[in-house]
From TrEMBL:
GO terms assigned for molecular function: dioxygenase activity; nitronate monooxygenase activity
Organism (species): Roseomonas genomospecies 6
Protein's name in the database: 2-nitropropane dioxygenase
Stored PANTHER family: 2-NITROPROPANE DIOXYGENASE, 2-NITROPROPANE DIOXYGENASE-LIKE PROTEIN
Gene3D superfamilies the record matches: Aldolase class I (3.20.20.70)
Keywords: Dioxygenase, Flavoprotein, FMN, Oxidoreductase
Length: 363
């Protein structure tokens, strides 16, 4: 029994060491114990959740969203009051005060700035780096990733269509196969549909420096999301997280993945109504486009903060089916690590039979 326990302990230590080697590049880049980034979710990724992720060994990322510069400064300072660990700030590329927001990050000593909502210009990347921070952004293709590297980006996130919120058309598994083997110049973090440690391990072994996880943290104890919002996540399955549908190409709809509810059904009805009005000459196409675009204005806040789960926007990734209960962030990260290490241990050579290695978990 003692020998068995000793062997189990040895296998566990070997698995932990292997995992540490696999995400060493990501940990070094982020300055963290694990290479698990928190996805920047508007209204959810604020000081409490971000600091909890960082305190648990991950890398929290504040979602600036539409915040003005003065409010971002307050939120960064408040986050720093809750953690001495590294965390980053996510800025939207199309924000009208983007340059000033970058300056706020510099003034507050933020070490990592993530640009979302479009490709940052070379000038934006330079402004971030001149302020002493590392610049990160998203790459939906190998070509765009290479272009960002040439512009000086320090790291990339590849996020598949399984993710929540605004999404692209390609899955994380395909993006990983397209990008990871051929883009080695900077650390690349995989995102979208990741909710277990085995998936983290898979992307690390393909060459990812780490991962970004959002949906899995929504129901963290430290998340300020409304209890009704959390309960919807806990009850949901993967197929409930659906991408918004564009009915008519004349009226573009940016795809957003969210849990289906009365609001999403009403959005489909609104599109049909607007199309009919435009076709009858009762409104211009520009007026119709604006009405469709404004439908979801404030809807995410209504759901996350006010608990309007019927008509609000329930942005969620397909990994929502793996969210089964409310847990502290440290427990979530601990579970992910344990799952990854267990998968590694299951592959370890346990005995030699007839001179051939026998792998645990093999048929």
């Amino acid at each position: 029994m003692t020998d068995a326990r000793s062997k189990a302990g040895s296998d566990g230590a070997a698995a932990a060491a292997r995992l540490d080697r696999l995400w060493a590049r990501g940990c070094a880049f982020l300055g963290t114990r694990t290479a698990i980034m928190g996805g920047a979710m508007s209204w959810v990724s604020e000081r409490h959740l971000v600091s909890a992720i960082s305190n648990a060994g991950g890398f929290g990322v504040l979602a600036c969203g539409s915040m003005p510069p003065d409010l971002l400064a307050v939120e960064i300072a408040a986050t720093r009051a809750l953690t001495a660990k590294p965390f980053g700030v996510n800025l939207i590329n199309m924000h009208p005060d983007l340059d000033r927001l970058i300056d706020v990050c510099r003034e507050q000593g933020v070490g990592h700035v993530v640009i979302a909502g479009g490709f940052p210009s070379g000038a934006t990347i330079k402004r971030i780096k001149d302020g002493g921070a590392r610049a990160m952004t998203f790459a939906p293709t190998l070509v765009s990733g290479k272009r960002m590297v040439k512009l000086g980006i320090d790291a990339l996130v590849i996020e598949g269509t399984e993710a929540g919120g605004h999404i692209g058309p390609v899955s994380t598994t395909v993006l990983a196969q397209e990008i990871l083997p051929d883009l080695r110049e900077v650390p690349v973090f995989a995102a979208g549909g990741i909710g277990r440690g085995e998936a983290i391990l898979s992307y690390l072994e393909q060459g990812a420096a780490g991962v970004q996880i959002g949906t899995r943290f929504v129901c963290a104890t430290e998340s300020i999301a409304h209890p009704r919002f959390k309960q919807v996540f806990i009850r949901a399955s993967a197929r409930d997280a659906q991408a918004s549908v564009q009915i008519d190409p004349r009226f573009p709809v940016i795809p957003v993945r969210a849990l289906a509810n009365a609001g999403s059904k009403r959005f489909m009805e609104l599109q049909r109504e607007v199309i009919a009005k435009v076709d009858r000459g009762e409104m211009t196409r520009d007026e119709g486009t604006l009405e469709i675009e404004h439908f979801w204005a404030g809807a995410l806040r209504r759901a996350v903060i006010e608990g309007d789960v019927e008509c609000g926007s329930l942005m969620a990734g397909q990994s929502v089916g793996l969210v089964t209960r409310e847990q502290p962030v440290a427990e979530i990260i601990g579970d992910l690590i344990a799952q990854a290490e267990a998968a590694l241990t299951a592959r370890a050579v346990s005995i030699e039979a007839d001179g051939q290695p026998v792998i645990l978990g093999a048929a």
